[in-house]
TrEMBL record:
SMART domains (UniProt xref): HTH_ASNC (SM00344)
Keyword Acyltransferase: no
Alphabetical list of InterPro entries matching this protein: ArsR-like_HTH, AsnC-type_HTH_dom, Dimeric_a/b-barrel, Tscrpt_reg_AsnC-like, Tscrpt_reg_AsnC/Lrp_C, WH-like_DNA-bd_sf, WH_DNA-bd_sf
One Pfam family named in its UniProt record: AsnC_trans_reg
Claim: Transcription is one of the keywords in the record: yes
CDD domains listed in its UniProt record: HTH_ARSR
Organismal lineage: Bacteria, Pseudomonadati, Pseudomonadota, Alphaproteobacteria, Rhodobacterales
Lineage: superkingdom: Bacteria
UniProt-listed PROSITE patterns: HTH_ASNC_2
Species of the source: Mesobacterium hydrothermale
Domain annotation HTH asnC-type: ranges: 4-65
Protein name: Lrp/AsnC family transcriptional regulator
Keywords: DNA-binding, Transcription, Transcription regulation
Length: 152
């Protein structure tokens, strides 16, 4: 992990709010000049601090109106099951996030689909590929807050 100073953090904050800004705009807003800012951005990319630069899309505008949080309990914790589950989840484009948890629930998935019927199709495919002890799906009625920017 590279040691980050105040200028690195300012650059990262600017990029995570709008990575489409020009190098000149970022440098000006960070209080520096273009060459040092470019060198820092390059080093932050190489170090893996900056993982990707992407466009954030509006799911509902694209017809993906249903967001489900899927709680999964498994009675099988061996390496083969875990590898099959990981491969299955990573291959499903509907899964936006997947987390292995501590506590009563083993995994939490964030799944974005068109509607309940599309969720059922996803669910049927999931359970056909991996043996799961218990699945609970929670439909998000309203997204109150969704941030991509990390608190720096």
């Amino acid at each position: 992990m590279p040691k980050l100073d105040a200028l690195d953090l300012r650059i990262l904050d600017l990029l995570q709010h709008d990575a489409s800004r020009s190098l000149e705009e970022i440098a000006r807003a960070a209080g520096s000049s273009k060459t040092p800012v470019w060198n820092r951005i390059r080093k932050l990319r190489e170090a893996g601090v900056i993982k990707a630069e992407v466009a954030l899309l509006d799911a509902e505008s694209l017809g993906l109106e249903a967001c489900f949080f899927v709680l999964i309990r498994t009675s099988d914790h061996d390496a083969d099951w875990q590898a099959r589950f990981l491969e299955t989840v990573q291959a499903r484009p509907e899964v936006l996030e997947a987390h292995r948890l501590a506590g009563d629930i083993d995994y939490l998935l964030k799944v974005r689909v068109k509607n309940a019927r599309a969720y059922d199709t996803f669910y049927q495919a999931l359970i056909s590929q991996v043996n799961i002890h218990n699945v609970t799906a929670l439909l998000s009625m309203q997204e109150i807050k969704a941030e991509t920017a990390l608190p720096l």
